Amino acid sequence: MKDFTRELSFKTSRSSGAGGQNVNKVETSVTVLWNVLESGFFNDYQKDLILSKLKNRINADGLLFLTVSESRTQLANKNKAVEKILDFVNHVLIIPKKRLATKPSRNQKQKRLDTKKKLSEKKENRKFKY
Fold first, then answer.
1. Against a cut of 0.85, is the pTM above it?
2. Which of 5, 36, 39, 90 shows the greatest Cβ crowding within 10 Å of its Cβ?
């Protein structure tokens, strides 16, 4: 897990929604900006992964941005935004293992056939024979 918080920049704005006069005078909403292209923490391959998988969050200038206004305090929103952006990027960098195709063993096949045969015999015995 890479911590690139030194490369993040922040903007604050007034949150929307309910909150009375407090909303009108306090800038609690926090937007985190991170320039993916100029990052020194990641190599070119990792940057390409980030750019391709988070393309709807990255603008034309290569800035990844995320706005958080969940809390009533600016500091809590800032911490939440940093946590979210770190999670996004670190989750993108995890490359899933390729699935290896496997076949059922001979014993598993035999067990399946035996179970089918028992069920068939059970149903056959329920029928009325004349």
1. no
2. 36
| Residues β-bridged to residue 62 | none
Mean pLDDT of the chain, nearest integer: 84
Contact present, 26 and 69 (Cβ < 8 Å): no
Do strands 63-68 and 29-35 pair parallel, antiparallel, or not at all (unpaired)? antiparallel
Q: What is the dihedral of CA 12, 14, 15, 19, to 10 degrees?
A: 140
C-alpha dihedral (70, 42, 4, 84), degrees to nearest 10: 20
Q: Is 94 exposed, middle or buried (0-12, 13-18, 19+ CB in 10 A)?
A: exposed
Q: How far is CA 78 from CA 13, 14, 67, 71, 125, in A?
A: 12, 14, 9, 9, 71
User: Looking at the predicted structure, is the pLDDT value of residue 1 above 80?
Assistant: no
